[in-house]
Structures are given as structure tokens and as C-alpha cells.
């Protein structure tokens, strides 16, 4: 009897048990469009190796000499005349070999010459620039000719640079131990202080 009452009490006062919801929904999958297949090009063809040099089998005589040139065979009267348009060395820039480059003797004096030739209107406007000048320097270090190699973009500066270099004094160029006249490229820079 006691067991019955105990069971009855348990059922009466015990909390009500319910089953939880275990249902699930079905998600629809979206179809994804795949990108088109990329066609991979074939690897480049291997570069052909250069041809192997072939050694010539031609036999040369050991005694190969140039025939002597004599005035009897080539008389001076039959030689062609020298070209008439030959210009002097100082007329236009040409390569002249030298071992010691000419340098400005007095840089302070050169700066004063530059200041004197710097156009006042450009100096006041704060305009400067570099003019590359071809300078022909004789064996005594004096400037005999000058030409603009690369201008500054301003005609007044170019003209001032040409006037200034004629007043510069250089050490003469040397080729081995001989004094030589040479053309050299020389930058002339004007800048506002």
C-alpha cells in the first residue's frame, strides 16, 4: 500500500516530461556557375643552340708580307690632291689625344668672370642653368675657340657662357710629355647666391 501511495505521489508531483523538438529543415542548395576552363598554353620551344664554329682547313703561307711601297712605283705626280675642305684643328670640335687634361688655373677669378657675365635680368629673376661648352685650348692654355655643346634652354645664358670661357685661363694639356692643343667639353653653371 505504501508503495502505491509513494508511486502515486511521485507521478503527481514530478514535473511533466516532454520530448524536445528534434525535427530538421532542408536548406536548398544554390547552383554555382563554374568559371570557364582556362586553356594553358604549351611551354615555349627550347631555343636552338648556336652553331659550333668550324675551324678552317685553309693553309696559309708562313711568309706573308706586304709588298714594299716605293716612290718609283707610286710617283708623287700621280697621287691624288689632298682634300680641299680640310679644316684646321681649332675650327670645330674633334678628338685630340691627351694624357693630362687642362684645368682652370684660378677658380676664384673664374667665379668672378662668371658673376660679371651673368645676365642681370636672369639673376634678378632667379633663373640659372648649366651650359656645356666645347672649348679649344691652345698649347699655352688660352681659349682660342668655343662652341655650345648642349645649351641651358636660355639663349642669354648660352651667350654669357661663351663670353665667359674666352676669359678663363687653363693649364695646357699634355700628351705624354708634349704640350698639345685640345678640344674639351666644359660645363659652365650659373646659379643665384
Summarize the structure.
The protein is α+β, with helices and mostly antiparallel strands.
Explained architecture:
This protein has helices spanning 2-13, 107-117, 120-125, 155-165, and strands at 129-137, 143-150, 173-175, 178-180, 182-190. It has 193 residues and is α+β, with helices and mostly antiparallel strands. The protein has a domain at 107-190: TonB (TolA/TonB C-terminal domain). The strands form two sheets. It has a three-stranded antiparallel beta sheet, covered by helices on one side. Strands 3-4 form a two-stranded antiparallel ribbon. Helix 2 (107-117) packs antiparallel against helix 4. The longest helix has 12 residues, at 2-13.
In the predicted model, the low-confidence regions spanning at least 5 consecutive residues are: none
Tell me the fraction of residues in β-strands, as a range. Answer: 15-25%
Q: Structural class given helices, strands, pairing?
A: alpha+beta
Name the helicity range: 10-25%
Q: What is the class of the domain at 107-190 in the CATH system?
A: Alpha Beta
Mean pLDDT across every amino acid position: 81
Q: Characterize the largest beta sheet: strand count, sense, and whether it forms a barrel.
A: 3 strands, antiparallel
The third-level CATH topology of the domain at 107-190 is TolA/TonB C-terminal domain
Q: Can you count the beta strands?
A: 5
Q: What is the CATH homologous superfamily assignment of the domain at 107-190?
A: TonB
